[in-house]
């Protein structure tokens, strides 16, 4: 016997309908979600959004539905907190899709569809988790980024890349498929080079 989905549960809006509330409590149980769904992460995110919407329409039980929505949000965070290495984090954030070795830049295979889904459903704690942030930085900075880099170090790194833009552009023209070329294709490097080009253009306009 399965518990009906949130759209299938009849709810008359009265807080004394304990049977209906119990159905929802069963629906958001982490054990039930994990055992009955091929994609428990998506299910938890969708449920949390749905429960918030229902609670907003029924003020009498809004607090109960908010608590159940928070329980759904906690499921994804708890899964990430159990991660032991980068491959496990990639499997969760990629929603179980096949994860090929990361080729940074335009060919990055880690699409982070799970993280995109979390953003869509306003899962702030999931997005802020250290593993989520690490995978985002990996795709943004490439294999040369150190997780322990400080904000100042990243700022200085960006400044150096901007100053080296002419040299980097020449290297990419000569050997786009080399290791250096793949490094130049990473979003962080391309952003720094675009900023350097834009600032150079502004300076030339002002000097005229």
TrEMBL record:
Superkingdom of this protein's organism: Eukaryota
UniProt entry tagged with the keyword Iron: no
Species assigned in the record: Branchiostoma floridae
Residue ranges occupied by any Transient receptor ion channel domain in the UniProt entry: 14-66
Pfam families, A to Z: TRP_2
The protein's name: Transient receptor ion channel domain-containing protein
Transmembrane segments: 155-175, 187-207
GO cellular component, one term: membrane
SMART domains: TRP_2 (SM01420)
MF terms in GO: calcium channel activity
Keyword annotations from UniProtKB, A to Z: Ion channel, Ion transport, Membrane, Repeat, Transmembrane, Transmembrane helix, Transport
């Amino acid at each position: 016997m399965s518990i009906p989905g949130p759209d299938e549960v009849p709810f008359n809006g009265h807080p004394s309908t304990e049977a209906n509330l119990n159905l929802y409590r069963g629906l958001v149980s982490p054990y039930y979600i994990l055992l009955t769904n091929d994609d428990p992460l998506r299910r938890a995110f969708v449920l949390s959004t749905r429960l918030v919407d229902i609670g907003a329409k029924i003020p009498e039980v809004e607090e109960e539905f908010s608590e159940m929505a928070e329980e759904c949000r906690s499921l994804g965070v708890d899964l990430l907190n159990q991660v032991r290495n980068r491959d496990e984090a990639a499997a969760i954030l990629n929603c179980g899709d096949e994860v090929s070795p990361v080729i940074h830049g335009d060919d990055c295979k880690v699409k982070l569809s799970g993280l995109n889904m979390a953003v869509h459903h306003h899962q702030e704690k999931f997005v802020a988790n250290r593993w989520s942030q690490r995978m985002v930085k990996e795709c943004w900075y490439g294999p040369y980024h150190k997780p322990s880099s400080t904000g100042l170090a990243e700022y200085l790194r960006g400044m150096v890349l901007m100053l080296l833009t002419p040299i980097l552009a020449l290297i990419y023209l000569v050997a786009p498929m080399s290791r250096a070329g793949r490094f130049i294709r990473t979003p962080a490097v391309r952003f720094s080079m675009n900023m350097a080009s834009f600032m150079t253009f502004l300076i030339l306009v002002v000097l005229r």
